[in-house]
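Checklist before submission:
- one chain only
- standard amino acids only
- sequence pasted in full

Submission:
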Amino acid sequence: MVNYRYLGNSGLKISEITYGNWLTHGSQVENDAATACVHAALDAGITTFDTADVYANTKAEKVLGKALKGQRRESLEILTKVYWPVGPQGPNDVGLSRKHIMESIDGSLQRLRTDYVDLYQAHRYDTETPLEETMQAFADVVRQGKALYIGVSEWTADQIRAGHALAKDLGFQLVSNQPQYSMLWRVIEEEVVPASEQLGVSQIVFSPIAQGVLTGKYTPGGQLPKGSRATDTKGGAKMIQRFMDDTLLERVQGLKPVADELGLSMAQLAVAWVLQNTNVAAAIIGASRPEQVVDNVQASGVEIPRALMERIDDVLGDSVERDPGRTAAGAPQTRPV
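Returned file contents:
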């Protein structure tokens, strides 16, 4: 079964393996299959589910809400996000303005079939809205009981510090950041993680398997597996493109002896690796088939010896991206509408 970790300095515990439905529910995966994956997650002891209003333009939230119908609400932690364009994508259907936040939380609650979410996250930093306006809106969402905690996603260390200070002044907790993090993508380690540790903010990390690359299923010069993320024309292929390099793929194949030594699959090794970072509260996994969930949860509670952590570094070499500037570089400089 899955272990649990505290989220930031709060008293809230979440499952260290969290189920997420980015790029799957409402788009890649049929609703029946998506529901089967959610039920497999519940059976495995996962209680934390992460989604966002923008996933499949609100459809993912609807699928998740339906899949969780009948579950005891108090036994779940439901996480969603706000920022990216949704709906007809009008001028106010995006960003972190008070208008968009207050309207978006109501829409998310309706789609998720719940009175509140456990964590409401700023999906990116909004350069066009004063941070004070954003944090005041989040404070009001918390006071109205529509969200219990507030988090952010892919914010820089300085942005997290500024948001945390305002949240403290306004009387609520900023408890988490949701960045990309994996053996191959370590850009949070130099600045974001130290700042978060100082402030009592946890990481809830996405893409721990690097879009499937760390499973080893992509081989140098080999054909792309049918139905894989790299063949998905709806967005998956674009997201995985940065890792589709023959040198990198060859090095990933070199991780198999490490996984074998630990008695893990390649995917389990990748998920267990991110959980070795004590600032990580949870690794988000996605799935298109229930058996993928069953496989990934086996990473919970695994301890990787220091010698093997060092061997992983040696195998991957300079294929690892560590530049902390990539967080800011990858963020939208203006609203995308």
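Reviewer check: The radius of gyration is 19 Å.
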